[in-house]
Amino acid sequence: MADGGSNLKNPSRRKPRLNPQHDAEKHIQCKTDKAGLREVFVSSYKGRGVFASVPFSKGDFVLEYKGKLLSLDNSATNTYNSTEATFLFDFQWKGKYFCIDASLEDQSLGRLVNDEHIIPNCKMRTIAVNGMPHLCLFAIRDIMAGEEVTYNYGDSDWPWRKQVW
């Protein structure tokens, strides 16, 4: 063999894996969704979802849940119909309560990630960028290409969890 008999690629040529936190920060600052994800219509009951078109490794940053950051008091004064209300995400950060209002159809994919309370493949984490909280999904296990991206919406009595298939 011309390369001295070695079939191994030169390890120094491998692209280093980007730290997931830094990857999330980069996408937040650029206001872009990560490549390798696509929107898919799942069913008339479930609606749309997000599917991986490339594999993700456990720990990888997957998506930001984008929307308008509100104090919880401000979100309580707004009026939402039942569909819009499913795009509200309440969370606590630095001892204060906030809400991400992702009810506006803005072409971002994070708002379309569906609930899976039994075997999700992502977990929501709050990270700070420029002193502001951002909700980001990180893979809690390897995600295969073609697999739906999901996370557990939390302990709640969501109506779709009562649905009998």
TrEMBL record:
Residues 1-27 are annotated as: Disordered. InterPro entries: KMT5A, SET_dom, SET_dom_sf. GO terms for molecular function: histone H4K20 methyltransferase activity. GO terms for biological process: regulation of DNA damage response, signal transduction by p53 class mediator; regulation of transcription by RNA polymerase II. SMART domains: SET. One of its GO terms (cellular component) is polytene chromosome. Residues 25-154 form the SET domain. SUPFAM superfamilies: SET domain. It comes from the Eukaryota. PANTHER family: N-LYSINE METHYLTRANSFERASE KMT5A. This is SET domain-containing protein. It comes from Takifugu rubripes. The lineage of its organism: Eukaryota, Metazoa, Chordata, Craniata, Vertebrata.
